[in-house]
Please model this.
Amino acid sequence: MKTAIIIVVIGFHFAAGSAFGQTQWQTYTSPDKRFSVEAPALLRKVPSFDGEHGANLAPDQKISWATCYAVIETTPDDARFGVVIVNGRLKVMRTRPQSKVLSYLSAVLIGDDDDPRPKIQKRITVNGLAGNEYFHIRDENAGGGNQSPLYTRGRIFDQGNRVYVVTFIGRDQRDLTSFDAQRFLNSFRLVKQRRRTRHARG
Model:
């Protein structure tokens, strides 16, 4: 009898672990079928997303110049993964030098606009997409302890009408090169759009 009880308890433990803690990574596609990405939980549209604060779910936090997605793993505050699609048709995006636009987006959407300079910045090519990668790192003791620590890594791909910003928020500096960070960032792909053709009736 005791053996049966132990087996039942162990079975429940594994079932609960798979349902609540240990999630399985899947490929998710955006609602508009523009991009796909691998993540441990559902990709969800949110009012805004940035590296400093993660996902902002309040309606008044919505930004008009971008569409934002976040992977909400457990609670609204636990969002390590985000994708932001910036409207590249805006005049301010096309009239300023690309380097300034990318630096601004890096500070606002990946890092911290009060401390805009990334610790690492480099050119990358992933899945046929050329872009820039940024590491924003601020330890606990930075600035005399007045600022909260920040560990974010993001990639920006300027595709003309759309600029894609893919962001990972780490718990510490080592987390920025972890398996989760690498898998999420490296999985980002644009979905090829099929052209609609009209068939003439004979």
Remarks:
- Residues 5 and 97 are 68 Å apart (CA to CA).
- The chain is about 25% helix and 35% strand.
